[in-house]
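Q: Given only this backbone (264 positions), what sequence would you predict?
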């Protein structure tokens, strides 16, 4: 087992079979993404793509959650310092594009709730295995933000425009069995079966014809990359504007104070 160093909030283990496991490592915060983890996520998939001994990537979370999305304290920092959000936008674009550009299969092991950016990370993986006890959703609107860090791109492709609009405009979370039924994720299963299923599939791909597998993914992703090129800049610009609205500040303040937000 080799460990890729240089990351403080991601654990990266590469086994002899060529399977790299990337673990979101803020379990005390339910793997909420803050400034440091966001920067690391914008780098890791490019780095793993360049590593010749890596054939398959598994993305998961440490502890009870996969990831509960953006850290609320980080959101307040970005309201207070607008230049921080400019950097975040650049990194958000790189996270999505690096996952789409990565020819190596990426498998999501969704061990717990995946919300906001956590949902985006899971859904931009190529195959999603999810604990049946977990929920997934993109409640950007619940904190007064536009769902533009990838959700507006990937959800309609997986569940159609009508369902995507319903869930992205409401911010409702979806239980894993329902997410599987509507095609948002591939599998919902008992938590104790997750590792066996994920790593059996990862080993199968790692033992397969690498060029055929990678170039099949690359071909499928052409359409998604075209959508990302067309939508990301505009969507992230909308999100940057929503970062400055009174509704976003009201939501962040409410969450920090443990109460429900009241929007204008």
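A: Predicted residues:
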């Amino acid at each position: 087992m080799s460990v890729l160093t240089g990351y403080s909030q991601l654990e990266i283990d590469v086994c002899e079979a060529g399977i790299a496991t990337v673990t979101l490592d803020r379990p005390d915060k339910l793997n909420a993404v803050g400034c440091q983890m966001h920067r690391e996520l914008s780098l890791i998939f490019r780095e793993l793509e360049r590593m010749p001994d890596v054939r398959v990537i598994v993305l998961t979370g440490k502890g009870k959650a996969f990831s509960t999305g953006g850290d609320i304290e980080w959101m307040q920092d970005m309201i207070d310092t607008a230049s921080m959000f400019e950097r975040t936008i650049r990194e958000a674009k790189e996270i999505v594009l690096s996952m789409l550009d990565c020819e190596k299969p990426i498998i999501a092991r969704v061990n717990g709730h995946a919300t906001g950016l956590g949902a985006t990370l899971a859904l931009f993986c190529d195959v999603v295995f999810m604990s049946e006890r977990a929920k997934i959703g993109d409640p950007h609107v619940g904190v007064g933000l536009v769902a533009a860090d990838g959700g507006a791109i990937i959800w309609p492709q997986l569940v159609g425009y009508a369902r995507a609009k319903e869930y992205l405009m409401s911010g409702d979370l979806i239980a894993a069995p329902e997410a599987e039924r509507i095609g948002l994720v591939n599998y919902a299963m008992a938590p104790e079966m997750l590792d066996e299923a994920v790593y059996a599939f990862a080993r199968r791909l790692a033992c397969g014809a690498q060029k055929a597998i990678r170039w099949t993914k690359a071909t499928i992703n052409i359409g998604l990359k075209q959508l990302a090129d067309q939508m990301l800049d505009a969507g992230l610009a909308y999100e940057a504007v929503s970062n400055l609205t009174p509704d976003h500040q009201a939501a962040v303040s409410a969450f920090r104070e443990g109460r429900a937000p009241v929007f204008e």
